[in-house]
Amino acid sequence: MEPEREGTERHPRKVRESRQAPNKLVGAAEAMKAGWDLEESQPEAKGMSQLHFYRFYLEFGCLRKAFRHKFRLPPPSSDFLADVVGLQTEQRAGDLPKTMEGPLPSNAKAAINLQDDPIIQKYGSKKVGLTRCLLTKEEMRTFHFPLQGFPDCENFLLTKCNGSIADNSPLFGLDCEMCLTSKGRELTRISLVAEGGCCVMDELVKPENKILDYLTSFSGITKKILNPVTTKLKDVQRQLKALLPPDAVLVGHSLDLDLRALKMIHPYVIDTSLLYVREQGRRFKLKFLAKVILGKDIQCPDRLGHDATEDARTILELARYFLKHGPKKIAELNLEALANHQEIQAAGQEPKNTAEVLQHPNTSVLECLDSVGQKLLFLTRETDAGELPSSRNCQTIKCLSNKEVLEQARVEIPLFPFSIVQFSFKAFSPVLTEEMNKRMRIKWTEISTVYAGPFSKNCNLRALKRLFKSFGPVQSMTFVLETRQVQRPVTELTLDCDTLVNELEGDSENQGSIYLSGVSETFKEQLLQEPRLFLGLEAVILPKDLKSGKQKKYCFLKFKSFGSAQQALNILTGKDWKLKGRHALTPRHLHAWLRGLPPESTRLPGLRVVPPPFEQEALQTLKLDHPKIAAWRWSRKIGKLYNSLCPGTLCLILLPGTKSTHGSLSGLGLMGIKEEEESAGPGLCS
Asked: What is the pTM of this model?
């Protein structure tokens, strides 16, 4: 970041939204992932970008600690402020909402009597635990679940899950696809998803009897897909029994059909088609619930059949949503009215009473605030050009300096449910930006380079290559046969490499992630067969080669906590697994940016590069302006504002990126929620 000097300015904006704000505002966060307005004709590279953040990474300590989620921003748009508040969002009549986190609009709310809602009648209005959502034996009998001792279940296998069930028992989402055979419906695919969304089982199954109809429009299974399959029903039965712990709870949608296709009996089940109770014994479709509850589009018509893994994951998320938000929150959504409206549209009929048609909730932030009698706060400098299109429900405060913007923000933000704070930064010259880009490329290349030696002239080069490749993919190797100790050349750009690596490892986004090398194609299956060893596992990331599609020999594992990650790392690098690994250094959003780096350093070891005159001039400018000090100061300013926020405040920092005739730089978003413990203890950014 640059200290202020004369020239055209650019504005990183700090956007915050309070959890205590009216519920209609929850969907507004979607509009914050936009770019920034820039005229391509402008000669200077304006705006903070991902380049600037990582160029001065060590100086942005506050932002790295407080904001646990980072994401790349797309190229700047023509009107970023309008994008942030949602004024550019096109509203199409008849679309279902992207999300239904908030209550129904007031014109439909009058028709809701929560006490008459079937969900409230069954579960009450207070939140319930997992055990309350389980189907009773009587309910399982009523809804034709396979049960031990029933005449039509004589050849069914028990899952052997007979442990004690508690509210913290593990949930597993299950979905099966079937085909029609000479003996009825038989299993062709099974998907099992564990909590955290990790797929632990996804198998195609060859039916025992002659297939009459593959039911491809639903299952996605074709003759070509199933021909090479040798897995039989007994194989997946054995695998499922081995995977499920004694207190496992299976979650499905019309789960009775899946269990009958599996020919298995399981005592602890949650059926989302029955959990989200509907009137008169009817059931909501999974596709409908996914859309209105989770904001997800599944079972899309442009795809061939259903994705069993996607469905299983969605089913699990629906159960988790119910447990987290409770029956009252679900009842307030008025699912019956939404479903009826969708059915009317599907039939091509107009609703009799247009007042009963629910509003599209994907409206702008300003409209949401206006509907509940609230205003948006916009803090900026008087010299800044950006203004919001509407002033009726937007309170704009213009200040003389960035310091005054900060002071006003700390006073005014608690009084508004949604605020935008705009700080101003000076423009970077194209020469300076290009120089920073070159320096960063060299720096990241040096960090990724290993210097080892000395080696004798008779050393086995092939063995050395194998050794280095066992740690991960190697882009290139250069052997310099020297008799003295080899070490990284010390230059201005490599002085803080070790410090930077340590800070990257401690980045809040990397905590809980580990990197492993030497994994085989069966690694995932081996890992998931030992769930008790790897508690807190949230994700398994297995990169594939873009050309061949083959799985690479390294992976990333994401855990809920650093402690779980450390324990797993000790196990996986121990004598039983014999893998090589360490705590991860690069967050996911950084990978695409790093791919643009040169494949190898063009500088030979020991060779000093003297920049040409114009680069020397840019370097001198870099030193004179003290950008490290400026970055540190701005990080502190934002940190002070963050520490003054109320607990539960959702806060986003948007570094816009640049777009000009000299080229574009991707932006960076940082997101965090101010937690109770942060406000109680010493400030993260103090």
From this structure: 0.47
